[in-house]
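Module 6 notes. Inverse folding takes a fixed backbone as the condition and produces residue identities as the prediction. Think of it as a translation problem where the source language is geometry and the target language is the twenty amino acids. Below is one complete input and output pair. Work through it position by position during the lab.
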């Protein structure tokens, strides 16, 4: 009798466990599917939102990482260089300077590039804009670990400084990603640094003296602009782009001379995805705007005494 009762209880428990498993299995599967779906949605939402809210150009920039090898030829002597049919002569110009330009950037940072570098050269300005999604007068762009050089860089004979400018961007982008780069690092710093390292690349339209005149008159970029992924910090500016570049270069150069040791440490902090403002304050013991006021005061004093 006792054995029969135990047997009955065991059968009931087994039956209940089996029923529970039948219920739990589809529930677990459903949860797993929902989890995966949510992750995909979370990843795609900002991407789609960025395209829809910032227009076709930004959408093209996002797709440029997929198009850098489309309809191009690899240079026979250097597979890092990709070019369109009618851009062979310009591709050869890049081949002759690429290693020396890379050396300029790696010497400045004190560390090598960690990933393969690809330089894509378009035959026409329209083709460059279509390929990388940049504005129509662009001479170069770094995006998704690639560098794009336009015909304007060659016709203006600025391709060497433009290549160094874009490689400077790339050195940090390859470590922290394009989204973090444009969202977390103020444009006045990232662009100013690239112009500084390239000895003026992108800011040739204005002299140092002209930029200082504008700064003294109060016509300068806004260091307090926090920005966002859609409107990166510092890009919201009424200045002409070359003037924005030149002013940013002058201030970044000042930061470098003011404390060269901590300036280099700040660069390493940024390539480790550390917060820009916190790292800046840690290294310089003050806010960027405070040092900018010192910079402005020195320029005014120098101008008044001349």
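Target side of the pair, the amino acids:
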């Amino acid at each position: 009798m006792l054995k029969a009762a135990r047997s009955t209880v065991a059968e009931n428990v087994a039956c209940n466990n089996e029923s529970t498993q039948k219920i739990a299995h589809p529930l677990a599967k459903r949860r797993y599917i929902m989890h995966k779906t949510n992750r995909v949605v979370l990843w795609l939402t900002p991407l789609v939102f960025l395209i829809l809210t910032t227009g076709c150009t930004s959408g093209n920039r996002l797709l440029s990482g997929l198009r850098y090898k489309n309809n191009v030829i690899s240079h026979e002597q250097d597979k890092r260089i990709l070019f369109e049919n009618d851009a062979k002569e310009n591709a050869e110009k890049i081949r002759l300077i690429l290693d020396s330009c890379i050396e300029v950037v790696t010497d400045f940072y004190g560390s090598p590039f960690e990933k393969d570098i690809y330089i894509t050269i378009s035959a026409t300005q329209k083709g460059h804009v279509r390929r990388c999604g940049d504005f129509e007068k662009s001479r170069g762009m770094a995006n998704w670990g690639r560098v794009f050089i336009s015909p304007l860089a060659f016709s203006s004979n600025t391709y060497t400084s433009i290549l160094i400018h874009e490689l400077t961007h790339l050195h940090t982008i390859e470590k922290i990603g394009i989204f973090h780069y444009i969202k977390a690092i103020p444009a006045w710093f990232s662009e100013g640094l690239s112009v500084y390292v390239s000895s003026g690349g992108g800011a040739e339209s204005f002299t140092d003296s002209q930029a200082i005149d504008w700064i003294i008159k109060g016509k300068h970029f806004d260091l307090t602009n926090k920005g966002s992924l859609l409107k990166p910090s510092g890009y919201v500016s009424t200045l002409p782009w070359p003037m924005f570049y030149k002013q940013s270069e002058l201030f970044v150069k000042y930061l470098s001379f003011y404390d060269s040791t901590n300036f280099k440490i700040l660069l390493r902090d940024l390539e480790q995805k550390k917060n820009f403002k916190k790292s800046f304050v840690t290294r310089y013991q003050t806010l960027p705007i405070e040092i900018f006021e010192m910079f402005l005061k020195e320029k005014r004093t120098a101008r008044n005494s001349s």
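Reference fact for the lab report: The two ends are 114 Å apart (CA to CA).
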